[in-house]
Design goal:
elongated; single chain; four-stranded parallel sheet
Length: 244
């Protein structure tokens, strides 16, 4: 059924999702008179997780609006950072393992499943645990059962981390979570972790931490300088008073 045409324009930051023909300004799009505005936007390639305000003929509109012939629709992107009051709880898909470890390094509650448990199980966990699902898979983010979602725009871990921190502006608590399982870290004496550390480490280091969930031991070893650089950069730009 064809109920007419509407003119749809997308904000520049949403152009990554839409066909080239839709990037030059308001474009005629045919409607069926039954589909919601949210469905129309999704059908054109944009995940609703990435949509900010929707304007119809210059006035704010909801996603459930049924477009009418001749209407002009403006689809805006998100305004960063998002205004949230609840603590940030994340769930990452199988392709974001490095990002998961970096988020945990900064103390952000980050669940990650490896091996892959499948899209349906991920969506169910997002809903059950009220976690924001992060993915580069637009199909996964369109699942109605997820609690909330966010598209990750880059395939580079450093840019992915910037993306998440600029979007959600979470409080940072470096060195407080296990990068292996997301559990909390607690100070540990050398005797408690002796079975996990090489002899040379035992002779060289005296300060240790241990995950209260999986028991993984941590100390300032060979990789500490590289990890510290990641932490210091994130805190300088996204911590209190950061440059962003």
């Amino acid at each position: 059924m064809n109920a007419g045409e509407i003119a749809v324009g997308f904000a520049p930051d949403l152009h990554v999702f839409v066909a080239a023909a839709l990037r030059g300004g308001p474009t005629a799009v045919r409607t069926d008179g039954m589909s919601t505005l949210g469905h129309v936007v999704e059908s054109l390639g944009v995940p609703l997780t990435e949509v900010g305000a929707l304007l119809v003929d210059g006035r704010p509109s909801g996603r459930s609006h049924i477009p009418s012939d001749g209407e002009a629709v403006e689809v805006r992107g998100l305004v960063r950072p998002l205004n949230t009051t609840e603590p940030l709880r994340l769930l990452l898909d199988i392709h974001l393992g490095t990002l998961a470890r970096r988020l945990r390094l900064l103390g952000i509650d980050t669940a990650y499943e490896n091996p892959d448990i499948g899209d349906a199980a991920l969506a169910t966990r997002s809903a059950t645990e009220q976690r924001v699902l992060l993915s580069r898979d637009r199909g996964l983010l369109r699942r109605r059962e997820i609690f909330a979602g966010a598209y990750i725009y880059s395939h580079r871990p450093a840019e992915q981390l910037d993306d998440v921190l600029s979007r959600f502006a979470p409080p940072l608590a470096p060195w407080t979570r296990c990068t292996a399982c997301n559990g909390r870290l607690a100070d540990a004496d050398k005797a408690a972790v002796r079975e996990q550390i090489p002899d040379e480490t035992e002779r060289t280091y005296d300060t240790f931490a241990q995950c209260v969930d999986c028991g993984q031991a941590y100390w300032k070893g060979a990789h500490h300088a590289r990890l510290s650089a990641i932490v210091d950069d994130a805190v300088a730009r996204f911590g209190p008073g950061g440059t962003r």
